[in-house]
Write a structure and sequence with these properties.
Length: 209
Amino acid sequence: MINLLKKFVNKVLRDLFKRKRHVKLGLYGPPNGGKTTLANRVCQDWLGEDMGSVSNIAHETREIQIKEEINIKSNGKELTFNLVDTPGIATRIDYEDFMKSGMKEKQAKERAKEATKGVIDSIKWLDNMDSVVVVLDATKDPYSQVNITIIGNLQARNIPVAIIANKIDLKKANIEVIKAAFPQYEVIGISAKYGKNIEDFYEQLFKLV
Ligand SMILES: Nc1nc2c(ncn2[C@@H]2O[C@H](COP(=O)(O)OP(=O)(O)OP(=O)(O)O)[C@@H](O)[C@H]2O)c(=O)[nH]1
Ligand SMILES: [Mg+2]
């Protein structure tokens, strides 16, 4: 009996530690918001390596990417998590849009097919996330069906969310519009590409995870 109890306590402790070690932080958002650029910055800052490829053509990331055990330090505190970069979520994927970016028809059709599968995977993976950072392009209108659906979904699942207003290096960027669109969330303006305000982002991660 005592042995059984010991086994049970050990299992609970093991599971607790396992959970702690494997906190999953997901990067979500529409295509081209800068999720992978941000993932690369985090990985460069703390691991000295990149996470994935970045492109100005939408749907560059078409498969879930995971970097395990990223350990970040800020203000004497330490945090370890698994970073999950996801394919951008879109309501409409048209291979002709890729052809306009210079792709051949076959390649464009393949990209559209993979991108569609990527969107489904991103949504499926929501259930695995412990916390999520939604990466938005601050030069774009935030009131899109995709943004509202992603954030609504996260809210319904009670997953902690922070919103990144990315690309603040661009003149057209407007954080205030994003703050007004999602007033119940913490919104941090950064430039993932140039590293502007990245410290604020790391600070926010400690509150989120
Ligand atoms: N000016 C500027 N451009 C950025 C910034 N972050 C990303 N970009 C550019 O935005 C484009 C898309 O970046 P990605 O990181 O591939 O975007 P993503 O959200 O991963 O896109 P998908 O993988 O398609 O979902 C690229 O051309 C990046 O160089 C930024 O802070 N400022
Ligand atoms: Mg990407």
